[in-house]
Design a protein that fits this description.
about 20% strand, alpha+beta, HIT family, subunit A
C-alpha cells in the first residue's frame, strides 16, 4: 500500500531480514531513550496476526521471541516489553522494548509521560545484535 509507512520504507536501520519479516533497530527519539528498542515488521501489508497463515504466525512470533532473547543476552534489561498495537499504523508489527527500572518511564509504558531523567545507556552493536538474533533463531530455545 502506497500510503502505509511500513510498506513504503524498510526503516533506516534494518538489523535482520528474511524476506517474510525484518527487524529494525529504532533510531528516533524513542530509540535513543530506550536503547535496543526494535520493531519486527511483517513484510506484506496485513493488519492482524489472525490475517496470517498458522505457519507465518509461528514464524513471526519466533522472530519476536528471538529478538527478545537476543536483547536480554546483550543488554540484561530488567524487563522486556512486547507490544503489537497498530492503531496509528495498521500494518502488522511488534515492538520489542528493553526496559530498566531507571529508564524515564518505568514502570509505565514508554508512550506515557516521563517521570524522571533516565540513566544513559548505550545501544547494542548492530553486528552483535544481528548475530545474537541469528543464533537465537537457529535454536529451539534461546535466552539468558
Amino acid at each position: 500500500m502506497s500510503d502505509c509507512e511500513l510498506c513504503r520504507s524498510s526503516g533506516s536501520n534494518v538489523i535482520w531480514d528474511d524476506g517474510l519479516c525484518r527487524v529494525v533497530l529504532v533510531g528516533d527519539a524513542a530509540g535513543a531513550a530506550f536503547p535496543g528498542y526494535c520493531r519486527v515488521v511483517w513484510r506484506h501489508h496485513v493488519k492482524e496476526m489472525s490475517d496470517l497463515a498458522a505457519a507465518d504466525r509461528r514464524h513471526l512470533m519466533n522472530v519476536v521471541l528471538s529478538v527478545e532473547a537476543a536483547l536480554r543476552s546483550l543488554l540484561a534489561p530488567d524487563k522486556v516489553n512486547l507490544a503489537s498495537l497498530g492503531n496509528q499504523v495498521p500494518h502488522l508489527h511488534w515492538h520489542v522494548i528493553p526496559r530498566w527500572r531507571t529508564d524515564s518511564h518505568f514502570p509505565a509504558p514508554i508512550w506515557s509521560e516521563a517521570t524522571r531523567v533516565a540513566d544513559v545507556r548505550d545501544p547494542p552493536d548492530n553486528s552483535a545484535l544481528r548475530a545474537a538474533i541469528v543464533a537465537c533463531l537457529a535454536e529451539e530455545e534461546c535466552g539468558s
